[in-house]
């Protein structure tokens, strides 16, 4: 499964690179290194994986649950391009698949994860919970590379302002009306998420 996931993510990374490298000023693109399964019949553990050794500072540009705020991810060129890669895959698969757990040395990445919807995507099931897709959608902040690729913002800026302004509103007619409004908003949010899946 590890080989299947990493090599599937590698194929997406190749498509991403082919598109990004045509853009003036985009520069170097992250690469997911290949991983191979080897059979060692004489060994007590007959199967193993092997890949290129990465030498240098190992950095986690994203984590599986998407919650960690990592300055190297947010501020470095490699980190921003990894986030853009995630956004590109998400958009390319209509929100059905996300490459996550991006980590490595510089632009060379390894040990990645893939989240798909519960039923999978085109016959492929990832190794991460589909909740990571929802978390990515909620937490991703577009950067200059997302803009260069023409990726659509995952949430409009005015939606964020509306949520912040909602608790300040004092025009609710009665406490019972406020109780009715609260659950309705929760249902609308769940319906929106489920429509994405």
UniProtKB/TrEMBL annotation:
Protein name stated in the entry: Alpha-protein kinase 2
Q: Which gene encodes it?
A: Alpk2
Family as reported in the entry's similarity comment: Belongs to the protein kinase superfamily. Alpha-type protein kinase family. ALPK subfamily.
Supply the source organism for this entry. Tyrannus savana (Fork-tailed flycatcher)
Main subcellular localization, coarse class?
A: membrane
Q: Region entry Disordered: which residue ranges?
A: 157-197
What is this protein's function?
Protein kinase that recognizes phosphorylation sites in which the surrounding peptides have an alpha-helical conformation. Regulates cardiac development and cardiomyocyte differentiation by negatively regulating Wnt/beta-catenin signaling.
Chloroplast recorded as keyword: no
Report the GO terms under cellular component: basolateral plasma membrane
Where it sits in the cell: the answer is: Basolateral cell membrane
Q: What is its EC number?
A: 2.7.11.1
Kindly give the InterPro entries that the UniProt entry links to this protein.
Answer: a-kinase_dom, Kinase-like_dom_sf
């Amino acid at each position: 499964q590890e080989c299947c996931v990493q090599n599937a993510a590698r194929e997406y990374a190749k498509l991403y690179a082919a598109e990004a490298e045509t853009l003036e000023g985009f520069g170097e693109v992250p690469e997911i290194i290949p991983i191979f399964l080897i059979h060692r019949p004489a060994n007590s553990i007959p199967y193993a994986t092997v890949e290129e050794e990465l030498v240098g500072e190992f950095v986690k540009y994203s984590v599986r649950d998407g919650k960690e705020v990592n300055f190297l991810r947010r501020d470095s060129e490699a980190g921003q391009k990894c986030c853009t890669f995630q956004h590109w895959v998400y958009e390319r698969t209509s929100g059905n698949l996300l490459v996550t757990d991006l980590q490595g040395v510089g632009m060379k990445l390894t040990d990645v994860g893939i989240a798909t919807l519960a039923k999978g995507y085109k016959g492929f099931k990832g190794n991460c919970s589909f909740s990571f897709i929802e978390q990515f959608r909620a937490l991703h902040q577009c950067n200059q590379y997302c803009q260069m690729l023409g990726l659509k913002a995952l949430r409009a800026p005015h939606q964020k302002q509306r949520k912040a302004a909602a608790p300040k509103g004092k025009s609710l007619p009665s406490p019972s009306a406020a109780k009715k409004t609260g659950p309705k908003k929760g249902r609308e949010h769940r319906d929106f998420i489920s429509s994405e899946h």
